[in-house]
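Dear colleague,

Thank you for sharing your sequence with our group. We've completed the structure prediction you requested, and as agreed, I am returning the results in plain text so they can be pasted directly into your records. Please verify that the sequence below matches your submission; if there's any discrepancy, let me know and we will rerun it promptly.
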Amino acid sequence: MTSRRRNPPPTDQADGLRRMFAASQGVLVPVVANPHVEYHGAVLARLASVFAEQGLNTLVVDAADTAPEPGELAFIDLGACVEPLAPQLAYLAARGLPMQFVDTRGSCTSFVPRMMSVVQDVDVVVMHAEARVLARMLGEQPLRPVLLASGVGESITHAYAALKLLAQRLGLMSFDLVMPSTKGRGPTPAQIARRLSDCADRFLGAALHDSATIDPDIAFGAASGPDLMRLAAAQLRVPAAAAAVPPVASSADAAWTTEQTARALNSFLSA
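Please find the predicted structure tokens below.
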């Protein structure tokens, strides 16, 4: 990942989808960590690999609570801690690192441009962190965070709580959702997406833009499904210069107490 020269993917039936990956430079894709999602590491890797497979230099910055700690050289030479995973795909363990960039106002927005420059000619930075950390680092950037969820009830509740926190703190009102494919009993990915979308709309006025399912057992480098390709392409088209969406509060929202919202949400999710 040290050269601007990209490896052009071969022309095939997916060439039309690849043309959608005409990204501006330095796209940030925030992924909200969810400890209740099974195979979340494989899901994150598969999501990031989609960008790299389209010839984009991609860096995964794993700042989640479940990530490894940064290497010993992180505060001297951060680039030396970057691990190559595949052509045009690299990984940086960064647990706790964003808070080393916190300023006197509690913001760590300076962490993002630092990550954009840690690898030469980076095209996409996939930032994996808890919602509370992303809320400190994203600032007023007009982004569409990617939520993670699965058939486990706690994961859906956690995803909604993360969505709510980012909507309230940053005014972000559009989200994507990525899920591991399910086997056996439990809600299907379509049902999970519908529940989360309905909750976001009913209680916050937020929207679920795209959702995709990832098979955690799929071989690395195997062709991605059209839903994941569509989601990733849309992430690259999020306007970098657009104004941040202000938080929306209505009198109806104010009438709901925290207890009422939690009770209604739990009832809806268990339906």
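Summary note from our side: The beta strands are 27-32, 58-62, 83-86, 89-93, 124-129, 146-148, 174-180, 207-214.

Kind regards,
the structure core
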